[in-house]
Each structure stands twice: as C-alpha cells, then as structure tokens.
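Write out this protein's structure.
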Amino acid sequence: MYQNALCAFGDATVLVIGDIMLDKYTYGTVERISPEGPIPIVKVTKEEYIPGGSANVASNIASLGGRALMCGIIGKDRDGDILCQEMQNRGIDTEGVLRIDNVTTIRKSRVIAQHQQLMRVDFEDKAAQYDHKELIEKAKSLAASADIIILSDYAKGIITKELCMMLSDLINQGKTVLIDPKPQNTHLYPHSALLTPNRKEAYGMSGCDALASIDEVASTLVKNTNCDILMTLSEKGMLFTPKNGKATHVPTVARDVFDVTGAGDTVIATLAMGLAVQLPTIEAMNLANHAAGIAVAQVGCAAITASQLSSAFKTDDSKIKTRPQLANIIAELQQKGHTVATLNGCFDIIHPGHIFILNQAKAQADYLVVALNTDQSIKRSKGSDRPINNLHSRSAVMAAMGMVDFITEFDEETPVELLRELRPNVHINDATYGQDCVEAPVMRELNGRLHLIDKHNCPSTTDTISKIKKL
C-alpha cells in the first residue's frame, strides 16, 4: 500500500498558504572563548539559505515528488531575492508568492557548531501593512488545480478572517484543507478542516488546564472547532481524534533525535501527500509519523524524500492494525467507494491451499483484511501443541503476502463480533460450512455478502503436521 502511494506522489498537487520565511544557517567550529566576553568564537566553515516557515512545508511537498504551489507575501529586498531563488531551486512553484514594497522578508539566522545551535537572530517587521485581497484572490485561483490545501500558520500576519472564509467556501465545495495552527488564531479557522497542533498548541487552543489528559484536550478541541484533530506528541507519537469515529494513537518511530526544527512541517506535508493520493487518514498519518522520525534525526529544516520514506517501509509491519484502527480505515475506504473483504483463520504453516484461498479472497474486493486467531484461541480449538508458529511469526509471514492489505487478530470462538466491528462488504468462508454458517446472519445484518470458497481438496495444516511427524 505505502509503496504504491509513494509511487503516486508525482501526481499530487498541494497548495501551501502561509507565512514565508528565509532560514539562514551558519555552520562552524568552536575552539576558544572570546577575550571580549564569555562567548564562544565560531570559525565559520559554511553558510546556507533554506526556505523556512510555510515555505519549508512546500519544500517537503516538492522533495516528496509532489507539485508544490506556494502562496504568501515577502518583501522586495535582498532576502526576498534569495528566498525566491531558493524556492525555485527546490522545484516550488512561486506564482502565488506576492512581493510587496513596504514588507521586510522575515529571516531567521541560526549559528551552529559541533551539531549544537548556539543562537538565533530574527529579522522581521510586524508593523508592515498591506492589502490581503490580492493574496486571497491568488490563493483562490491556485486552489482550483490543487488536490489538497495546507494553511501553515506561523502567526506572522498572513492568516485573516477573510482568507479563512474563502477556505471555508472551498471546504463546502469538497476541498480538503489541513491547518498547522497557532492558538491565537483558533477562532479564525474554518470548520471541517483537519488541524495538526503539537501538544503545547493543543493545550493552548483548548483552554484546558495542564492537568487535563491528552484525550480530554483533543475531545475539547474537536467540540470547540468542529474539526478533526491530529495532535503531534513528540516522543509519544500522534493522536488522531476525528469528529466522527474513535480516537487512534500511533506511537513514534523516531530513534535518534538531533533537531526537531521543522518536524511539524514535515508531518503536515507528508499527511497532505498521503491524502492527495487517496490513502485513508490513518494510513496517511502513519506515513507522516515515519516521515517525522526521519526528519528529527537530521540537523536543521530537513526536507525528506520519497526514497527515504520508501526505505522506512521495506518491512510490512505497517499492515498490522488493531481492530479500532481497522474499523476507522475500513469506514474511510468505503466512504471513498472501495470494497473490503475479510478472511479469518490460523494460517499456522503456510501451504498451497492458503495461497489459493488468499488469492480467491482478494479477487472479491479492493482490499483484503486477514484476521488471525490468537495463540490462545488456537490452543483452545486445536490442542496445547498448536500453534506451531506464534502470532508474531504468523503476522510477519502474512504481512509479506502481496494480496493481503491489512492484518489483525481475534481471540473469540467465532468472528461474529469482529465482523460487527469492522463491517466489511464481503466475508470469505470455507464452502464446507455452507450458507448456514454463523457469519451469514451478521453479513445480512450488515447488508454485506458471504462468499464461500471451495478448497478443491487443498491440504490442511493438520495434514502437513501429520506428514512431518511420520518422517
């Protein structure tokens, strides 16, 4: 699934609207303290300029292979010249970048030595006044060709009531809008968007006190903003709380954290790309989580690439989901017109009969979910010497099967409750059980279909084990 999505990134167009800045990095070494005061002397070895603020979001879009449309305001100054050139060098479309006479381009200059940031110097003029009408019209024009719109708010003056009203109209017309928010502008954001605050921003936006749980904060934000909330939680991963449906937590995948600068930009950019190529929200969130793990392991605002993400998904553990996660994913897939089939079993020792059944099952729907019996349930039904392979091993083997899209587990004697929870379009069963099997009434209740597969005398795992014992 993820590899296919990454291949499709080249077809995605994302419009980024927000506060554009220029990041300057001065790198050097420190070998002594200045005689003029208790400060380090930095011997400069390199200087570089990088698009920052909202332009870093656009850089990530372009780096991932998408078409990035940037819309914002900068000055007609030297920093503005450098910023425009750096955006264009990275493949960002700057047609929507307006240059205004009395505006000073925002620049953040950082000094780094031995991988440590020593100081930051900011250049900006919040007093500058300009007419936002041209920006809104430009954004509206560019939105027509965008698959997804990102509002990247750094609270520098770009976000206005009029701009958010225009975005609200676009949402009503079917456009998806993601917002990287700032607490002071919470009252401006359009309803039915998807907000991606970090923990500090979420608490500030919700009005909850510091003792409130993360779940309470997320629920309050959903209620107050009428938006879906994806809260980034640093080392604790992400929490997605939709307006309709259950909250889903995804743990972090970051191993080494060197610099969190721009990690939020990476998250919203990757999330947008995933949604643009029709990934379910939970899967796009998982993709963004892996992207953030890559970004924080690098120094500075690092725009990651699709190939880096691809390497992170060379294993197929991402197919393995909890039942609540799967319920949300299936519901979203069905809303987009896709069909989902479920198949349950032990799948202890894989043999040709299993491959036949899996291929037949996959042919019945767009997506195939395999529910594996837990080790305990197999022992109850088949004896204490089974399974031969534990659930972890069986899940890993099943995840390597190309026809399988998702894997979950169930411990019940029958899959009846599993089916009620997941609500598939089709359930696959062995033809020997017939149309009177226990799953049949549930599938009728769900307005789904029961599909029976004749194994054509395919060998069973029990047969295989018997043969091995005779050797």
